[in-house]
């Protein structure tokens, strides 16, 4: 792994100007009329998704030249590199289109299969989450940490629904079966609509836990580091270390992790 000694050389410092600039374009789009196209039956994309990604790629190519830039709107979900920056230009596009202020730009920097720097920026609410490996997690420059709640029954749990739900196949059955097993044993469940922010809100201690199936690398590449650096735990549904592309992500404050894993439905057997 590269050794960045000076603060200004570190990946987080190199990506911050780009994400702040991207946030301005994002905010302009949030308040403007939008051209909405469909990538799938209910999977939306606007001209701002592509424009924010293009802007980020242009800026990051200059500030992080040794990294491969992988973005939702211009790369495939299988794309990986030893030194990679995973970009979700607008995470929570459905919220963005409906003017629900829970959406963000998400940028995660990975080296040798692990995250080293991350920024998730919601310009609508003026929330900038940042983390560096070994350096802690921050919201607008203030340190944050996960909730201390030990009981699942007293936990506010976030989740999300994959676009594949419309196929009514394995993902859909798993979502419904997990909800049936889990809901009575939580304080409540939320579906706010942006996975990157869901993870940041676990890091912040707002949610005790978050789980979802079929997320893509750009949805989680940044949020994973926020949760880890805030003292939380991230695994797949089997409790194994989470790897990009795993079918299910489970992120918690650590204390309710095993109890949550026990409640999730079996994905292998198609729920
Ligand atoms: C989506 C959001 C949503 C999650 C979906 C994601 P997008 O990302 O993170 O919360 O449930 O699975 O695909 O499409 O708005 O970038
Ligand atoms: Ca996303
Ligand atoms: Ca997106």
Supply database-style keywords.
271 residues; alpha+beta; Fructose-1,6-Bisphosphatase, Chain A, domain 1; D-Maltodextrin-Binding Protein, domain 2; 2 domains; seven-stranded mixed beta sheet; five-stranded mixed beta sheet; 14 strands; 31% helix; 25% strand; globular; binds D-MYO-inositol-1-phosphate; binds calcium ion
Short description:
The protein is of the alpha+beta class and 271 residues long.
Major sheet, described briefly?
Answer: 7 strands, mixed
| Ligand species | D-MYO-inositol-1-phosphate, calcium ion
How are the strands ordered across the major sheet?
3-4-5-6-7-8-9
Per the CATH scheme, the topology name of the largest domain is Fructose-1,6-Bisphosphatase, Chain A, domain 1
CATH superfamily label of the largest domain: Fructose-1,6-Bisphosphatase, subunit A, domain 1
Tell me the domain tally: 2
Q: Any overview of this molecule?
A:
By secondary structure, this protein is α+β, with helices and mostly antiparallel strands. It folds into 2 domains: 7-143, Fructose-1,6-Bisphosphatase, subunit A, domain 1 (Fructose-1,6-Bisphosphatase, Chain A, domain 1, 2-Layer Sandwich); 152-263, D-Maltodextrin-Binding Protein, domain 2, CATH 3.40.190.80. The chain has helices spanning 11-30, 47-63, 93-98, 170-182, 195-204, 217-220, 223-229, 257-263; strands spanning 36-38, 44-46, 68-71, 83-91, 104-111, 114-122, 127-132, 137-139, 142-144, 156-159, 188-190, 209-213, 233-235, 248-252. Helix 1 (11-30) packs antiparallel against helix 2 (47-63). One calcium ion binds next to strand 4.
């Amino acid at each position: 792994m590269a050794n960045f000694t000076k603060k200004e050389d570190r990946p987080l410092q190199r990506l911050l100007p780009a994400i702040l600039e991207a946030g301005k374009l994002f905010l302009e789009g949030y308040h403007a009329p939008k051209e909405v196209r469909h990538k799938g039956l209910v999977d939306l994309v606007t001209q701002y998704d592509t424009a924010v990604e293009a802007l980020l790629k242009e800026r990051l190519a200059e500030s992080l030249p040794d990294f491969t830039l992988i973005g939702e709107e211009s790369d495939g979900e299988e794309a990986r590199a030893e030194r990679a920056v995973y970009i979700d230009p607008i995470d929570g596009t459905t919220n963005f289109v409906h003017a629900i202020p829970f959406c963000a730009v998400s940028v995660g920097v990975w080296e040798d299969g692990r995250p080293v720097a991350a920024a998730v920026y919601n310009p609508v609410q003026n929330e900038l989450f940042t983390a560096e490996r070994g350096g802690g997690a921050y919201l607008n420059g203030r340190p944050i940490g996960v909730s201390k709640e030990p009981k699942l029954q007293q936990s506010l749990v976030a989740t999300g629904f994959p676009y594949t739900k419309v196929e009514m196949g394995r993902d859909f059955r798993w979502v419904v079966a997990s909800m049936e097993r889990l809901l009575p044993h939580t304080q409540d469940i939320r579906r706010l609509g942006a996975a990157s922010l869901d993870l940041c809100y676990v890091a912040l201690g707002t949610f005790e836990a978050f789980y979802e199936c079929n997320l893509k690398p750009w949805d989680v590449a940044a949020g994973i580091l926020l949760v880890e650096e805030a003292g939380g735990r991230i695994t797949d549904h089997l409790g194994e270390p989470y790897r990009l592309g795993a079918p299910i992500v489970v992120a918690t404050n650590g204390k309710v992790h095993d109890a949550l894993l026990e409640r999730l439905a079996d994905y292998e057997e198609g729920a």
